[in-house]
Design a protein that fits this description.
homodimer, alpha/beta, 434 Repressor (Amino-terminal Domain), Rossmann fold, 6-stranded parallel sheet, 12 helices, DNA-binding, repressor (chains A, B), Peripla_BP_I (chains A, B), Lambda_DNA-bd_dom_sf (chains A, B), DNA-binding (chains A, B)
DNA sequence: TGCGCTGTTGCACATGTTTGCAATCCGGTG
DNA sequence: CACCGGATTGCAAACATGTGCAACAGCGCA
């Protein structure tokens, strides 16, 4: 493989100017006469020249690369968020570098090291938590960090979170208003702050309303976990008549098991609610009442902060966004 | 933002060696004594040094960047393929640059220009088709190209396709064996080669078996299209008793409409099959009989070819992979 | 003509690496 | 001691670009 790209030098020769003129022709706002710029762009077009962003990044100390650190990309909610982020990054003139993490130790740290190696302008973390020392290293290197739905107290990164606790509370009162008496919460074992927030808010509100909550945790946040949680909750001596599932995927698995295996009618005998508002929640086999993740708003906030000159605004303390309750058919009484 | 990274120079000074020694310490197989390498790595660790891959790419003419060009990342099949690709890229020591395209003209071309600007070693295209001139430019620049499920005749890029026509034929005979008489094909208007291949294979095989096929095309390849196609096909004078849907998402929409709106029993009154084997196809609300995309195999082939020294093997003509039929509950008679 | 100003252009240095080449060192052998 | 070979190391050139500085051209004005 030859790997021969055309360089600014060749364009300069063809256009009969110096190499710096070529550079300036591709730099908006630089001092070039309209005529020479035209000539240079024509020569570039003809030769198939494209500015080498690696070299440009080396000089400018700004690569235009933003790292997206995520695990389980194939999950509906994650992939929707990923799409929103990449799209908005692109229209902001940046480019996304995607790094997959897994549940193993140090996975996120390795991802951030990759970000450093490529001198990314920023990293957006959607899964896991990096080690404190790596975060410090990133910040020290001038790399911006955004944490989505992760909890962390150290200052520096932008933290974007939802009002998870309030959501838990809202659905608890909705359940009570629907006449439900025996509440349950179907969670995963992942134990991320957002999941635990939903659980806490739900539990506290129920207690205020004079009801107890049965909490079960199992597996990850997927469909299979929902099925297993249904086994555990629906075989209880006094079966719950309302379940708040920590994610929509769990809710789908739960509903499928409830209907097809236990022959329970939803919402007549059992109210179900989820979280995320994934596409499947709207499918007519589910019509799930759920909270919608404000993905575009999340992406907007993140990218806006990345592009700002002085990021030390009021934002530096973290952003808290609101998740709307989407009423569909799985909770009685709209 | 200061943007101050630590350079090899500083590490060299701290370790009391030359800058080239530092470089060699980070290059596997380079000539450094074990002792100096140890000293250098220690100094690097302490200072938080990470090789600048931009500069390295500049020198080596190999960046380690692979561009993934895709539209509709949030779609189940796409996101699964994306995950397989990024994971395998990572374990091959490469890094994925994600570029979103839309249906507008020249969108893929712009993506490839981005790939060129960052001097990507290769690009993998999963959506749309680039202009011939851009493909030529990429190849001329030594960039490798992989086209997944796209059709194209010009030599150079690696083309990975499935045996779509055979799948169409296989499901047609399965339908006939189940006693179905009135076959239908529910396609999207997208008209990509793989979709059309399935349609063609299905139709031809049906004709060989002495049956006609009603074909309807509508919208994109999603759930909504499936619902609309159900409207159009299930209100026909002599209603189909078997439908092959071009994608699983279409099949899900189709089944939901058939069951909840038309009250049709599946598979007793209507057999349904899909394509892709997305996660939802296995959910107990659907249990869809479908063809599974060999995603890991696709990713494997693609990355293997990218890493090869001389890519002009027998592969240069293109690869044809087999999609397995997954029997579930929506077609009578396993 | 001489002067100052503005807008354009080229020179040269800077960015952080890799790597070919030559120099150095060290141990072993004649 | 001279010499040889292998391993290790440093020097300097290269990669493709951006940009400060000075030079220069052109123009208006005194």
């Amino acid at each position: 493989m030859p790997k021969e790209f055309v360089s600014a030098q060749e364009v300069a020769e063809k256009a009969g100017v110096s190499r710096s003129a070529v550079s300036r022709a591709f730099t908006p706002g630089a001092s070039v006469s309209a005529e020479t710029r035209r000539r240079i762009l024509a020569a570039a077009e003809e030769l198939g020249y494209h500015v080498n962003h690696l070299a440009r990044g080396l000089m400018r100390n700004e690569t235009g690369i933003v790292c997206l650190v995520v695990s389980e990309v194939a999950t509906p909610y994650r992939s929707v968020l990923l799409r929103a982020l990449t799209q908005q990054l692109q229209s902001a003139g940046k480019v996304a570098m995607l790094i997959n993490t897994d549940r193993t130790d140090g996975s996120v740290d390795r991802a951030l090291q990759q970000a450093i190696r490529y001198r990314a302008d920023a990293s957006i973390i959607m899964s896991g938590m990096p080690d404190k020392s790596i975060v410090q290293l990133c910040l020290r290197s001038g790399q911006r960090l955004v944490l989505i739905n992760r909890d962390d107290d150290q200052p520096g990164p932008l933290r974007i979170n939802l009002d998870d606790e309030e959501c838990g509370a809202r659905i608890a009162t909705a359940f009570v208003r629907a006449g439900c008496k025996r509440l349950a919460f179907a969670n995963s074992e992942a134990g991320t702050p957002s999941l635990m927030g939903r659980e806490r808010g739900f539990q506290m509100a129920a207690k205020r309303l004079g009801l107890d909550v049965v909490v079960k945790r199992y597996g990850q946040t997927g469909y299979e976990a929902g099925r297993v949680l249904a086994q555990r909750l629906l075989t209880l001596p006094d079966r719950p008549d309302a379940v708040f599932c920590a994610t929509d995927l769990i809710a789908c698995g739960f509903m499928d098991a409830a209907r097809h295996q236990f022959r329970i009618a939803i919402p007549d005998e059992l109210c179900v609610a989820g979280f995320d508002d994934i596409e499947q929640a709207a499918w007519s086999s589910y019509e799930l009442t759920t909270f919608s993740q404000p993905v575009t708003e999340i992406a907007e906030k993140a990218i806006k902060w990345l592009m700002e000159d002085a990021p030390e605004g009021e934002m530096s303390t973290g952003v808290r966004l609101h998740a709307d309750l989407v009423w569909r058919g799985t909770v009685r009484g709209a």
